[in-house]
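User: Hi! I'm working on a homework problem where we have to compare a predicted structure to a textbook description. Could you give me the structure for the chain below?
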Amino acid sequence: MRTHYIAYFSPAGSTRTVAKMIETALQRHEIKAILLDLAPQGGADMATLAPKVKADACLWLGTPVYVDHAVPQVLEFIAALPQGINGVAVPFATWGAVCSGVTLLEMAQHLGKRGWTTVGAAKVLALHSSLWASAKPLGAGHPGADDAEKMGALVAAVVQKLSATPVVPLGAQVLDYLPPAYAAEAWEKSLTVTKAVLGKHQPDRSRCNGCGTCVKLCPTGAFTWEDGYPVVGERCVRCHQCTRHCLQQAFAYAGEVIETRLHQMSAQSPEQAETVIYV
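Assistant: Happy to help. Predicted structure tokens:
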């Protein structure tokens, strides 16, 4: 019997919700999973977390989609996973109805380089994390009951797969689902480049009162202190939890401009706004 692990990075909570859906579905098959939060209290130590995954593991690995890719923390976790332990993996990604990009394929490729076999995957529709103040946010109501049902179907299919010998891998071409032009564009995108284009993300000291809420909430541990004020460092992934929860509104955020742009991008997307499982 394989040991099941569910590892996830979830700044806004959607990927954690899906992780719990998977855990519940596994319990229906009398399988107890070990959950690994890749961002506990301001940044997980991947070198400590990853080796906890033992031989003959089935790793369910979740990320939100940022700039058409998996977040750096998830790729760091994969890079730290033990090799040669007969592991299989099921990557899953939450996306906000704009584009899921090459996230699942990227994760499968990185897992393969570590000797892990991908046996299933899912892209799960979720409330877009940048539209918390919108009256009509993309992905509203997701992940919900319908998504949980689909994740239950994925769990059942994976459990069935793992009962066979040999275990049949998920073909890489299955996850290469974007039209070629969109896929090529997605591969060229980068969170690092996007951050550079967006410019500095720092609190306005004329508004900030040094309460430290942003420091406590940051899932990447990107903050340090300088002269009694929080300072954002390079590990920031622009999840905007600091922006969303700052009572002083010390972080600039052009919400209406961002909302308009995201809705335009969603309208042009080649993907249907829905949860899809791959087995």
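For your comparison, note the following. The chain is about 35% helix and 15% strand. The chain has two domains: 3-183, 191-267. Good luck with the assignment!
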